[in-house]
Amino acid sequence: MQEKSSGMNYAPRSAEGTTRTVCETGEFPLGVVGLDHGHIYGMCNGLVEAGANVKLVYDPDPAKVDAFLRSYPDAQVARSEDEVLEDHEVRMVASASVPVRRAGLGIRAMKCGKDFFADKPPCTTREQLDRARATVAETGRFFAVYYSERLHVEASVMAERLIAEGAIGRVVQVINIAPHRMSLSQRPAWFVDPTQYGGILVDIGSHQIEQFLYYTGARDARVVSSRVANYSVPQHPQFEDFGDATLTADTGAVSYLRVDWLNPDGLGAWGDGRMFVLGTEGYIEVRKYIDVARDPEGDQLYLVDQKGEHHLNATGKEGFPFFGRLIRDCLQRTNTAYDQALAFKAMELALTAQEQAEHIDTGANYGKE
User: What tens digit of pLDDT does each residue of 130-154 get?
Assistant: First the structure.
C-alpha cells in the first residue's frame, strides 16, 4: 500500500531495524472500523510493527474488507461495528471512516472501554469536539489522532529531536506548505462535500496546526487570519481546493500554513510537503515526500546552524516511535506518546480557522473575454 503517487493510498512502513516491538504477541489486539480512507493502512502498519495485532475488521463495503485482508490476512471479519466495540479482547479501535463519522464512533468506543485512534481530522464540528473531550474526561480513555505528517515522516521525527536538542535555539516561526494531488476521478462522493470532510482547513490544516503547536511547545494559539477558495473545481462549488492561515502561539511563536489540492501530476509524489522551522540560532527545512528535481526520495532535512550548512537524509535513522509509545501508554495508562489536550487543541484551532475563513471570490469569469 506504499503507493507514493497517491496520497490516499500512501502507507509508510518502517525501515528495517528502526522499529522494535513493545508488547508480547497478542497483548494488544486491535479492532478496525471504517475503511473509507487509505490512511487506515498507515495507522495499522505503525501499530503492527510495534507489536499490535489486528484482530477484527468491519466495514459495510465487502470490497474494502477484501482489500484490507490482503494486507492483514489474520484479521477476522466482524459482522457489525458493535461486534468490534463489544469484543472484550480488543484494546483499541482504529478508524479511517468518513470524517463526519469519526467522533461519534470514537465516543462509542471509549464508552465501551476502548482507546480510540482516528485518522485526521478526528471531527468536523465543534459539537463533536466538545463531546469527544467530555467523553475522554468521563471515561479516562485515549482519543488519539493520526497526524501523520509529523508522526509518520522520519524527517519530521528528526526535526523534533533536533529542536529538542536545541539545534536551532528557541523556535519563533513554523511555515508549513502542504500541496496535495486531488485525483478527483478516484475520490468518493464525500470527498467534495464539506459537510462530510469539514472543509480544507479542518481536513488538511489540522495537520499543520498540530505541528506548529508541537514544535513550538505551545499550549494554545490564536487564529489571526484564514482564507479558503475553490479555484479549480467549479462543478463542485462548495468544495475548497485552497486554504491558508496565520496563527500566533502563547509562546510568542508565529505560523503560516498553506494547504491545497493543486499538486500537478508532473510531480513524482502525491504531495510536495515542506516545513520551515526558524529558530533564534538556526533554521530547519524538511522536504517530506520528495526533493523536487533532485532526489525522488523524501525524508530530506536541511539544517543551517551557527557551525554551517547540513543536509541530512532521515530515512532509516529515526523510525516512528509514536506507535510503540502509544501502545505502552494504552497498556500502562501513561502519557509518553501523546498529549491529549494538544491533539484536541489543534482540532479546535482548525475549526476556528475554518469558521472564520474569508471565502475568496475566485472570479467566475476568470480568463473570459
Answer: 999 999 999 999 999 999 999 999 9
- Residues 297 and 154 both lie in one domain: yes
Number of domains in the chain: 2
Residues 31 and 178 in one domain: no
43 and 119 share one domain: yes
CATH of the domain at 108: 3.40.50.720
Residue 186 and residue 299 in one domain: yes
**pTM of the predicted protein model:** 0.95
Q: What is the pLDDT of residue 364?
A: 56
Q: Extract the residue ranges of the chain whose pLDDT is less than 70.
A: 1-9, 364-369
Question: What pLDDT was estimated at residue 19?
Answer: 83
Do 273 and 326 share a domain, yes or no?
A: no
Residue range(s) defining the domain that contains residue 335: 7-147+321-339
Cell numbers 509524489: residue: 269
Buried/exposed 95-125: b ≥16 CB within 10 Å, e otherwise: bbbbbbbbbebbbbbbebebbbbbbbbbbbb
What spatial distance separates the first Cα and last Cα of the chain, rounded to whole Å?
Answer: 46
List, for residues 264-297, the tens digit of each pLDDT value: 999 999 999 999 999 999 999 999 999 999 999 9
Is residue 346 in a domain?
no
- Kindly state whether residues 171 and 136 are assigned to the same domain: no
Q: What is the pLDDT of residues 316-339, one digit of tens each?
A: 999 999 999 999 999 999 999 989
Cβ neighbors of 281 (< 8 A, separation 6 or more) are 166, 167, 168, 169, 170, 305, 306
pLDDT value at residue 11 = 78
pLDDT at 87: 98
Assess if residue 80 is contained within a domain: yes
- For residue 255, the domain's CATH number is 3.30.360.10
